[in-house]
Amino acid sequence: MSSAIVADHLGKTYPKSRPGKYALDDLSLEIPTGRIYGLIGRNGAGKTTFVRIAATQLAPTQGTVYVLGYDVRNEERQIRTRIACVPQESRPLYFLNSEEVIYLYLKLRGLDPRDAHRRTMDAMEELSLLDIRKTLVSRLSGGLRRRLLCAMVLASDADVMFLDEPTTGLDPLARREVWQAIRRASRENRTIVLTTHYLDEAEALSARLALIESGRLRLEGAPADLRNRVQYPFRVTIQGSYPRDELATYGKVSEIEGGWLLFTREQEADEVAKRALERGLRISMGPVSLEDIFLDVVGRSIDEETEAEEPENGAPGAKA
Ligand SMILES: Nc1ncnc2c1ncn2[C@@H]1O[C@H](COP(=O)(O)OP(=O)(O)O)[C@@H](O)[C@H]1O
Ligand SMILES: [Mg+2]
What we know:
Order of helices and strands: EEEHEEHEHHHEHEHEEHEHEEHEH
CATH architecture of the domain at 1-82 and 159-164 and 187-229: 3-Layer(aba) Sandwich
Bound molecules: adenosine-5'-diphosphate, magnesium ion
Strand order of the largest sheet: 6-7-8-3-9-10
């Protein structure tokens, strides 16, 4: 399988950040062609920095990224014509209406007018945007604008598409539509880099995913394989009283409302379940979730905010 994107010992420090602070730190990974690749991590993990470097909006401090075989350090032009990216600080042209934004974007990318029109309509239908076809972009709510930009990227003929948190703030229905559109583009052999802090989304869509924390790659693989990488791939919850010390011999125990949560191995999970049932307690068990894995690897949940971070973005378009 070929790789659309190869990050090679990528490092990034922002000019004004404190000395020794790396937004990306020796990050190496390979993103296979024609698949959906999820980048997950808490706020400030480095996801957007990675996307901006791969999309040639920001220069790396160390290492490099190859996109479709081209080096972001000196082959930006070749890369830019082959990728599409929803910029995080996106300012679409406010004096255009929704349809025009997509259509002109596709025309600029070199599609002929008929093709551009057809793709515009298809994408607007796919994301339920036909009602706002003629609405000025400046009049759209934040959520609609986000969907419009997703439609724009997903309608393009780019080989590599970057979607940075495309569903943040969308309602569940709109989210599902974006998922469908992403899947459709992937079936057309596009490579899609999706950053998200919704773990269900990452798990549902990604062929592979990378967990980034503090600029470092902490875990990488197909979602189903990640479970085999953690020490305790099973979770058991027990409702009622059970001696904690005994549970602790099986794995990692924590207290939950009305009982215990135990992370353990498969065989031990069976054994504990049996014992708990003998005591007449209620149990549930199953493989760990991506949420559990995240907590285990990072030590904090994906939504937990920590100390105040520096601003998300520098000057728009600045090449730091
Ligand atoms: N323009 C910038 N100047 C200084 N620091 C920045 C800038 N942009 C991001 N950072 C810092 O780099 C780190 C990674 O940020 P970012 O890539 O935006 O993470 P994510 O997208 O995962 O939330 C954070 O510590 C953030 O504060
Ligand atoms: Mg981000």
